[in-house]
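Hi F.,

I've been meaning to write this up properly since the lab meeting, where we talked about keeping a consistent format for the predictions we share between groups. The idea is simple: the sequence comes first, exactly as it goes in, then the structure tokens exactly as they come out, then a line or two of notes. No screenshots and no reformatting. I'm using this chain as the first example so we have something concrete to point to.
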Amino acid sequence: MPGIGVEEAAELLRRNFAPWVQELHLQVRATSGDSATLVMPFDEKLHRAGGIVSGQALMALGDTAMVIALCSAFGEYRPVFTVDITTTFMRPATNTAIVAEATVLRLGRSMGFAEVRMLTDAPDRQLVANVTGSYSIPPAPDLKQRENGSIGRPT
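Output, unedited:
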């Protein structure tokens, strides 16, 4: 699989994701041909009562990590559309950064499937949640779109 580098993935994240996703301050830790590892730093704004990281923040991290893994599998940014996400919360995460390890399970012409393991960013790396997602893949942009730079820009 083609793969993209960490710097390219970080740039994709910065240029193509909504401002509220940017406010999560996600960091790309690693990429490979069909996977990506992102970290969501500890931030009290993302916690609910008792210092527990909110489920909404975890789901946004999972979705974003799967999209970056799909882009790595494509070897470039391509817009994809979330069809389904299932999140299984296994234990509360308190006062910790979260590591999201995303892997593409299957990449077809019109659909992609991925999963994410979310772990505490601590020596014991406790499993916090598991996420699976399916994504619609629109047809690849044509050469004219590539040349005029309109790929990935909101219309």
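Notes:
The CA atoms of residues 84 and 134 lie 5 Å apart.
The chain has a mean pLDDT of 90.

If this format works for you, I'll send the rest the same way.

G.
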